[in-house]
Amino acid sequence: TTWQEAQSLLLQHSGFAEDAHLLEMDKEDALLVFENHIRQLEKDEEEEKEREKKRRKRQERKNRDGFISLLDELHEQGKLTSMSLWVELYPMLSADLRFSAMLGQPGSTPLDLFKFYVEDLKSRFHDEKKIIREILKDKNFEVQVNTTFEEFATVVCEDRKSATLDAGNVKLTYNLLLEKAEAREKERVKEETRKFKKLESAFKNLLKNIEVDYQTNWEDVRMKLEEEPDFKAITIDSERIRIFKEYQHDLEESCGHHHIRSKKKKAKKPKRKSRSRSHSESEGSERGGKKKGHRSRSLSVQSKSESSESESRKLKRKKSKKKRGRSHS
C-alpha cells in the first residue's frame, strides 16, 4: 500500500474523519507512523514465509523418511535387496501412500531414494562377504560345484551374525564362491586329463614296443604287458581295452592310407609312358611334316629352274633364225 492510498483510506474511515486530534496531526509524523507500520507488516510477512518454508521442509523430510521406512520394511521382508530393480518393485511401492506423499515435492524423488538405498546395500557387500566367510569357516562348510543356494543360505542364516546381512549380498557371495568352485573343478579336470593323456601315451608306447598290429588279440597283449608299470598305471581295464582298440584303429587307418597312395602311384606310371609315346609320335610327325615340306620346296625350285632354261633355249633359237634371214637378204 502506498502513502497516497493510505491517506485516501483514512479519510474514508469514520473513526479518523471524526477524530480532531488525528486530523490536526503533522503530516510528516503521520508518514513516519505509516512507514513504521509498513515495515512491521513486511517483517511479519517475511517471518510467516520463513515459518511456512520450514513447515514445508519439515513435511517433505517426513515424507522422505516415510518412504525410506517403506524401503526398510521391504528390505526386512527380503523383497528389497542389493540386486533389486526399480521396475520390479514399482508396482508394490506405488500402491503405498508413503510413495504418493513424495510426488510433486522438490528434491530427491522416490526413484532417487530407491537408488541411494540399493547403492548403500551394495557398498556393504565387502564387509558382509567377510562375515559370511567367517560363518562358513565356523561351520566347516565349503561351497562345491553342486552346492545349491538353498543349502548355502540355510547354513549362513543359522548363525546370529547373519541377522543384519542383505539377502542380495548373500546371493552375490554365493555366486562368487560358486564361480571359484567351478574354476577349481575345471582346473582339476584339466590336470587329470593331462595326467591321463601321459599315461595313455606311455601305454601306447608299450603296444608299439611289442609290435601290436590291427589283428592282434587283446588277451595276448594282456599276458605280455600285465607286469609292466605303465600297464598297471591305468587301473580301469575298460580304459586299457579302449586305448588298445584305438591304437589298432589308428594302425588300420594308416595302413589303408598307405595302400591307397601306393595304388595311386602305380596308376600314374603308365600314364607317364603313354604321354612320352604320344610326345615322341607327335615329334616324329612334326619332323616328317618338316621333311615333306622341305622336299616339296626343293621340287618346286627345280621345276622353276628347268622351265627358265627351256625359255632361254627358245630365245636363242629365235635370235639365230633372225640372223640367218638377214644374211640371205
From TrEMBL:
PROSITE patterns: FF
Protein keywords: Coiled coil
Pfam family, one: FF_PRPF40A
Residue runs in coiled coils: 31-64, 182-209
InterPro entries, per the entry: FF_domain (IPR002713), FF_domain_sf (IPR036517), Prp40-like (IPR039726)
GO molecular function: RNA binding
Ranges of biased composition (kind: Basic and acidic residues): 278-288
Superkingdom, taxonomy of origin: Eukaryota
Gene Ontology BP, a term: mRNA cis splicing, via spliceosome
Gene Ontology CC: one annotated term: U1 snRNP
Location of region: Disordered: 253-329
Bias type Basic residues, positions: 257-277, 314-329
Every FF domain range: 59-120, 195-250
Protein name: FF domain-containing protein
Native species: Bracon brevicornis
Organism lineage string: Eukaryota, Metazoa, Ecdysozoa, Arthropoda, Hexapoda
